[in-house]
Specification:
With 334 residues, this protein is of the alpha/beta class. It folds into two domains: 15-151 and 271-316, Rossmann fold (3-Layer(aba) Sandwich), CATH 3.40.50; 153-267, Rossmann fold (3-Layer(aba) Sandwich). Helices cover 41% and strands 17% of the residues. The chain is built from eleven helices and eleven strands. The protein has helices at 28-41, 52-56, 91-103, 115-128, 152-172, 188-197, 211-223, 242-252, 273-291, 311-316, 323-333, and strands spanning 15-20, 45-49, 61-64, 108-113, 132-136, 176-181, 201-203, 230-235, 258-261, 297-302, 305-310. The strands form two sheets. The chain has a seven-stranded mixed β-sheet with strand order 3-2-1-4-5-10-11, with helices on both faces. A four-stranded parallel β-sheet has the order 7-8-6-9, sandwiched between helices. Helix 3 (91-103) crosses helix 4 (115-128) and helix 5 (152-172) packs across helix 6 (188-197). It starts with 14 loop residues before the first strand and ends with a helix. The chain binds adenosine-5'-diphosphate and 6-O-phosphono-beta-D-fructofuranose. Adenosine-5'-diphosphate binds at residues 21-23, 53, 84-85, 88-89, 113-117, 119-120, 123, 138.
Length: 334
């Protein structure tokens, strides 16, 4: 369980860089710490890149010493900052980025981010030959090649803490609440949060939702004397405002739901123990893979085993949602 790869050094890389990119996630800091210390322990110099690809393309790069990553294992956010960088979608810009890294003597890069950031990482290594290893850093848990992404567990627990509180007032006032969690394109957060908070229903982008079924279930709940309060967990989905639209529709059916949008609160906060261990293992493993000569891979964890998956697969394969979780929430509610 959690065995780190035992691979011999097979490159003459003597300096690597690390960056965080895309939406931040709790656990990015322990990942940065792990990459830094694992490399320094092997006598490899480490550079931090500020603000993801935005910082890379302007050379916002600085050397990281061991003391720079002291006391960050417990902190949310990312000491390297994060950003989205449209310019990096241009191959000319990616080529310039590789030159900037070479000028600093950097022979390998660790990119911590979501599927967009890992797509950029794949293109960078494929086009320029610069060795790049990715780590799955996003709260969304929508990345193929790993059971959990770094930050997902913390986001799940943050959402649960909030929903438990919402349920208190929902019960006192015998009210239905629609609670929106993050997940623009995926219902991984919603499905797990929904099961864990005892939601009456979970609404996710992957599964067609019928308003009539929800109204029927709420009416049944009352008729059977199972109370008038309830939590419906909604994944935000691709079009902003979904939860308010649902609330309006429910009002036309005589319901008076409360709405709570949890929003960016889910991206912050101290990483949980699970996220810290995951980030620490994957960070150290990323350095081992880079030094052994691997490139164009993402390091993940499947069934408690550290794995390396080609970045091309990360780009092209979708991690399926487990529909049983959505059904289970409904089943357990009855
Ligand atoms: P996340 O990594 O959290 O999924 P984004 O999808 O916003 O976040 O991607 C983060 C950054 O990764 C983008 O701003 C861009 O710099 C880079 N990126 C995303 N998609 C591509 C792409 N197709 N080609 C090159 N770079 C990309
Ligand atoms: O990090 C992923 C994510 O949290 C999505 O779930 C969400 O839709 C998106 O980021 C929002 O990010 P931003 O407000 O930074 O665009």
């Amino acid at each position: 369980m959690y065995r780190l790869p035992e691979l011999k050094k097979n490159t003459n890389i003597n300096a690597i860089a690390v960056m965080t990119s895309g939406g931040d996630s709790p656990g990015m800091n322990p990942a940065i710490r792990s990459v830094t210390r694992a490399a320094l322990n092997q006598g490899v110099r480490v550079f931090g890149i500020n603000r993801g690809y935005s910082g890379l393309i302007i050379g916002d790069i600085f050397e990281l010493k061991s003391s720079d990553v002291t006391n960050i294992v417990q902190r949310g956010g990312t000491i390297l900052k994060s950003d989205r960088c449209e310019a990096f979608k241009d191959p000319v810009v990616r080529n310039q980025a590789a030159e900037i890294l070479k000028e600093h003597g950097i022979g390998g890069l660790v990119v911590i981010g979501g599927d967009g950031s890992l797509t950029g990482a794949h293109l960078l290594t494929r086009e320029t030959g610069l060795p790049v290893v990715g780590l799955p850093g996003t709260i969304d848990n929508d990345i193929y090649g790993t059971d959990d992404t770094i930050g997902f567990d913390t986001a799940l627990n943050t959402a649960l803490e909030a929903i438990d509180k919402i349920r208190d007032t929902a019960v006192s006032h015998e009210r239905i609440f629609l609670v929106e969690v993050m997940g623009r394109n995926s219902g991984h957060i919603a499905s797990q949060v929904g099961v864990a908070c005892g939601a009456e229903m979970i609404i996710v982008p992957e599964i067609d939702f019928k308003l009539d079924a929800l109204c029927f279930s709420l009416a049944n709940q009352r008729a059977e004397g199972r109370g008038s309060s309830g939590i419906i967990v909604v994944a935000e989905g691709p079009r902003p405002g979904l939860t308010y639209r649902l609330a309006n529709q429910l009002e036309t059916h005589g319901e008076k739901p409360g709405v709570c949008i949890l929003g960016h609160i889910q991206r912050g906060g101290r990483p949980t123990g699970h996220d810290r261990v995951l980030a620490s293992c994957l960070g150290a493993a990323a350095v081992t893979y880079l030094m052994a000569g691997f490139t164009d891979i993402m390091v993940g964890m499947i069934n408690s085993k550290i794995t390396a998956t080609p970045l091309l697969d990360i780009m092209n394969k979708k991690k399926p949602l487990n529909p049983q979780l959505v059904e289970l929430a409904q089943l357990l509610h009855k």
